[in-house]
Design brief:
About 35% of the residues lie in helices and about 25% in strands. The protein is of the alpha/beta class. It has a single domain, classed as Trna Endonuclease, Chain: A, domain 1 (3-Layer(aba) Sandwich), CATH 3.40.1350. The strands form two sheets. It has a five-stranded mixed sheet with strand order 1-4-5-6-7. A two-stranded antiparallel ribbon has the order 2-3. The radius of gyration is 17 Å and the shape is globular. The two termini are about 25 Å apart.
Length: about 180
Amino acid sequence: MRESEFRSKIAEFLEKEIPNYRVREHQNLLYQVVVNERFEFEPNTPLNPRRGNHAFQADIVIVRENNNLPLVVLETKYKSLSSHEVITYSTKAIKHKEIYPYIRYGLVLGGKEFIDKRFFTHNIGFDFAIAISKLSDERGLKKLISAVKDQIESAETLIRIFSRRQPEVKCFNAKLIIETAR
């Protein structure tokens, strides 16, 4: 199986399992907004970012159904994950979070039983990662759905905080959840 086929199958699966949200493949997201010499924002069309114009393309993006607001991004890799890729995608996540501070970023590693140690060594921008050995791995797919739903909830909560619709926050506690492959 090729990575593109794996990504499309994961996107199809998520689309069926997550109501009230849409799953988009190859979605462009802004990574930078610039104020030019005329004091205008570039790009001036944030609803339709274009790759190469202050935007990176993400593998899978889960957006609100009503307005396409991006909430969760998934980068997919199949069979292998290099240190360079972890660094690159992790940095990409941070750049996107500078524009969309509520966005949650994850890695779905297909064709592997576990997440390699290099992920933990080099990650700084991902919020979660899941290894799915094969598309028939029901346990792995259930974990993916659960994680994505949790991340959507986190993104929606952060949006309420930023928009001041959330009561004043008294406590913030991010919990690390690790499950072993065995």
